[in-house]
Amino acid sequence: MIKKLLISSLMALVLVSCAGYQVGNMGHPQIKRVSVGKIKNLSDEPRLALIVMDKLKEAIRQDGTYELVNAGEGKADAIIQGTLPQFSFRKVGFSKNDDDDKKYRVDNYRATVKFTYEVVTPKKLVIQKFTMTGNGDFSDGVSIEQNRREGLERASYSMATKVVTQLAEGW
């Protein structure tokens, strides 16, 4: 009798411990489709808005919580739009110069992208308003311009995944 009571109590405990687990996404129940709207670039980096738009779309597709639709179709339940006020580069890695042990040279840099955004409904009702930043490291190589661009892309993707996570799980 005690053995049956112990086993049934243990089974009840196992079943209750899984009661709060949810399979699937945790997105807002009224948002099924998302689009990326206008992004205003106030920084000195040309085409940064296009990079951020591309990375936001990529992050939405990879997350899978929401369906990505074109902004002009009018099918979106929510639209991500915002402003890129700034970006920056800073030195993060140094190594000794081969010729002189007292001198150091920069080997690695970090790009930081700041994005102030809001998530609005098609009727322009603001759902969320946040500022996110993303960082992307790159090294000093043959083409510093190409490496800078890759650093900006990494920083933009880092920021975009944070935006999508906030949208999907911030409720």
Widest sheet, order of strands: 2-1-3-4-5
Overall residue-averaged pLDDT value: 87
Compute the gyration radius: what is it?
23 Å
**Number of discrete domains:** 1
| Percent range for β-strand residues | 35-45%
Structural class estimated from helices and strands: alpha/beta
Q: Please tell me what the overall shape is.
A: flat
Number of β-strand runs = 5
Class in CATH? Alpha Beta
User: What about the largest sheet?
Assistant: 5 strands, mixed
What is the CATH topology? Double Stranded RNA Binding Domain
Order of helices and strands: HEHEEEEH
Distance between the termini: 47 Å
Helix content class: 25-40%
The appropriate CATH architecture is 2-Layer Sandwich
Low-confidence stretches: none
- The CATH superfamily appears as Lipoprotein like domain
Number of helices: 3
Verbal overview:
With 171 residues, the chain is an alpha/beta fold. The chain has a single domain (26-169), classed as Double Stranded RNA Binding Domain, CATH 3.30.160. The protein is 34% helix and 36% strand. It is built from 3 helices and 5 strands; from the N terminus they run αβαββββα. A 5-stranded mixed β-sheet has the order 2-1-3-4-5. Strand 4 (104-120) and strand 5 (126-139) form a beta hairpin. It starts with a helix and ends with a helix. The model has no long low-confidence stretch (mean pLDDT 87).
